[in-house]
Design a protein that fits this description.
10 helices, about 30% helix, Peroxisomal Thiolase, Chain A, domain 1, about 400 residues, four-stranded mixed β-sheet, alpha+beta, 17 strands
């Protein structure tokens, strides 16, 4: 695991200190810092925006925030070595009223949709679909709200995906992979082919973790968001992909569902007009807690074995496709992997190498912490300027539940 490996750094500048970040203070709840960075690759015809809201806490000052939220000190053995896990900063906001939390996240989401459209040279009124992944939405109709405020037409398709950290990759897979539609359901990839589409992950995890007393979760997670624009089949072309559900019976990573789900089966898809919801069943914590974790090693055991299996499955399908197309020497230029923590990705890379599978898996977002469904999108946008026309990119998403979406695409 190469580039920007923050596990080798004790500190890093705040995201807000990057020279290309635009900053402002949202006039809600006494003022909430908000910053975003727009990225575009004109050669590929793909652009997007990513950002964060709240104060930026480095690892030293995070301890004070966590103790304040818990109302008790962290014991020395409870303080995580976050730099070793690849994180040196994350973003949190103070406690707000439910109304203020809603206003902040709707304004952030709307701004990101507008900026992502502009990064692609589109007006918001030209956007034909919005697919947003999020672990715990601040409102069940969040995507509809942000699309309306951004100026996206009412007739545009709006898809909410709730598969924890895998949510944005679930959305991207739906937008590109026509093989995912079940009988009787809309084939979203076929519906979106050739249309101006925004796909992203928006995670208000400072709000989400406020109701937990899990000391690991309070140290790992923070706010973050990333939204990209693409035209399925044109600026980004599906090659191969797969999804998998494997219910976390033991609750190694238990997550509260703040979205509608019938509790009948794992993944359910509902549609009302131009709004679609993809909701994953979660093993929920006891009591009112939003999240309970078995710890970093528990996450390693939960995600690595199955994660390696599905990446291997997709990679072998990719190799067969290249053989069929008469280009057996083509390879994956880069893998954009969910940044759960550095050790998980490092171990996945090691196991894949043992299977003879090797491609770059850069670590790219040390200044955000674990931002769940936003992480793949932020990582992709940070890699985007380096990508070239025709590059093949592997997206690797995984999250609590457990849910996996892995796909290989061609750029442009």
């Amino acid at each position: 695991m190469s580039e920007n490996t923050s596990a080798n750094h004790a500190s890093a500048p705040s995201f807000f200190e990057r020279p290309s970040v635009q900053q402002e203070t949202l006039p809600v709840g006494g003022g909430v810092p908000f910053g975003f960075e727009r990225v575009a690759n004109p050669e590929l015809g793909i652009g997007g925006v990513y950002g964060a809201w709240g104060e930026s806490y480095d690892n030293a000052h995070l301890k004070e925030l966590v103790e304040q939220r818990l109302g008790e000190p962290l014991e020395p053995q409870e303080v995580m070595n976050l730099a070793e896990l690849g994180f040196v900063r994350r973003h949190h906001i103070r406690d707000l009223s439910a109304e203020d939390h809603l206003e902040v996240e709707v304004e952030v989401g709307a701004r990101l949709l507008r900026e992502a459209a502009l990064a692609n040279g589109w007006l918001p009124s030209e956007v034909q679909a919005v697919l947003i992944g999020m672990s715990g939405p601040v409102a069940p109709d969040y995507v509809e709200r942000i699309a309306a405020r951004a100026g996206v037409p009412p007739g545009a398709l709006k898809v909410s995906v709730h598969k924890a950290c895998d949510s944005s990759m679930g959305g991207l897979n739906l937008a590109l992979n026509p093989g995912l539609a079940a009988p009787g359901q809309m084939n979203i990839a076929e519906e979106l082919y050739g249309k101006k589409t925004l796909v992203g992950g928006i995670e208000g995890l400072s709000r989400f973790t406020r109701s937990t007393r899990d000391k690991n979760a309070l140290q790992l997670f923070g706010n973050g968001a990333g939204v990209i624009g693409l035209i399925p089949g044109q600026t980004m072309k599906f090659l191969v992909g797969a999804k998998r559900e494997a219910f976390d019976e033991r609750g190694v990573l238990a997550v509260r569902m703040y979205y509608p789900h019938s509790h009948q089966g794992l993944l359910e898809v509902t549609q009302s007009g131009q709004s679609v919801r993809v909701a994953g069943l979660m093993h929920e914590p006891q009591g009112e807690s939003s999240i309970d974790m078995a710890g970093p090693m528990g996450m390693v055991k939960l995600f690595v074995r199955t994660g390696v299996e599905i990446v291997s499955e997709v990679y072998q399908a990719y190799r067969r496709l290249m053989e069929k197309l008469g280009t057996p020497d083509r390879s994956i230029a880069v893998a954009i992997v969910h940044h759960a923590n550095y050790k998980i990705n490092q171990l996945k890379e090691k196991h894949l190498k043992n299977l003879g599978i090797q491609f770059p898996m850069p670590w790219l977002i040390s200044d955000f912490g674990n931002v769940s469904a936003a992480s793949n999108m932020i990582a992709f946008l940070r890699q985007l300027p380096k990508l070239k026309l025709g590059d093949h990119v592997l997206f690797d998403g995984f999250g609590a539940g457990t849910y996996y979406d892995v796909l290989a695409v061609a750029m442009g």
